[in-house]
Amino acid sequence: MSSASQSVLFLLLGGMAMFIIMLILLLVFCKIIKPSDLNKLVKRARRPPDLFSGNLRSISLFDFQTLKKATNNFHPGNLLGRGGFGPVYRGKLEDGIMIAVKKLSVNKSQQGESEFLAEVRMITSIQHKNLVHLLGCCSVGPHRLLVYEYMINRSLDLIIYGNNDQFMNWSTRNQIIIGVARGLQYLHEDCPLRIIHRDIKASNILLDDKFQPKIGDFGLARFFPEDEAYLSTAFAGTLGYSAPEYAIRGELSEKADIYSFGVLVLEIISCRKNTDLSLPSEMQYLPEYAWRLYEKSKVLDLVDPQMREDGFLERDVLQAIHVAFMCLQPQPDLRPPMSQIVSMLTCNANMNGTPMRPAFLERRRKRDIENPSCDSISDPFPSPLQSDSSLPKRPPN
């Protein structure tokens, strides 16, 4: 046999051997990995990497039809409220678990899609008893949905804005104030990632069956670099709760959340909105009205009349109001960190210094709104998270 024939023979035998080896490996692969598992791997590979990666593996991925059935096809009767980027519906899964489903249509808003992704990443990266718990999400075609634990007492604004007969005594209000403060302390100081919520307000504070508060709606939240004092960014949030340096100059830091917390504390104590244009002019903007009472040594007149009738610890209420004023200081560096605020609310720690007059964002004339300044802006616009559905149950006395 010639050398050329031998070479051809060796190539043929080598090719056959490689084929047999590949066939054996394929059979072993099919034996170990079931076709159903292989289909899952293929589907996972086809998923958009932005949405189904990283921390998202720790939450459930819901089927759209499951959520559609749970909410009775997103029936208006199950509408809990409207978030900044979509409505929120009450739902019930087949196993009886109650859920809250935030629905957002990406076709209507590309910004909404990015906010959806931001909220999923944000919530799955943090865990705290005073932060809302995300159960899962859904992404099918144009549909983007977030699935939260259902909070039986809904949002705080439904109680404190005085549109119903619900009443919270001082013990319950104080519990909510402290709980929100602890949630913010975790986001700002204890979380592995420094996070700014950017939209702390009554409608974003959810209440469980024991009226323990949980901060929700992280669609506007931002990760914050440890080595920077503030970020320069476009304004996003709710006027009336927004710190002057952020609303006017776009300077964002955790101090913006602290300012919003100060406004929220005054709302909880007075049981009214931060801006109410139906009131006399001197009472329309809550922080300004509270400061005027403080200057007249009549700050307890701010307290909700029902709570005055029910009774409260005057020292604790005064301490909470003092904390609120410290949070509303005109310069960000004058506002105490949340860890100090929690200490002042829970340990009766002494408050260092006397609060300065807050930098009011108050509405004066229409032309002032076009050229805002620290003395001319207020909240002429209602919160985007209004809700007109049924009332929460009465809190414990």
From TrEMBL:
Keywords: ATP-binding, Kinase, Membrane, Nucleotide-binding, Transferase, Transmembrane, Transmembrane helix. Gene3D superfamilies: Phosphorylase Kinase, domain 1, Transferase(Phosphotransferase) domain 1. It comes from the Eukaryota. Pfam families: PK_Tyr_Ser-Thr. Residues 74-360 form the Protein kinase domain. SUPFAM superfamilies: Protein kinase-like (PK-like) (SSF56112). GO terms for molecular function: ATP binding; protein kinase activity. Residues 368-397 are annotated as: Disordered. The chain crosses the membrane at residues 7-29. PANTHER family: CYSTEINE-RICH RECEPTOR-LIKE PROTEIN KINASE 3. This is Protein kinase domain-containing protein.
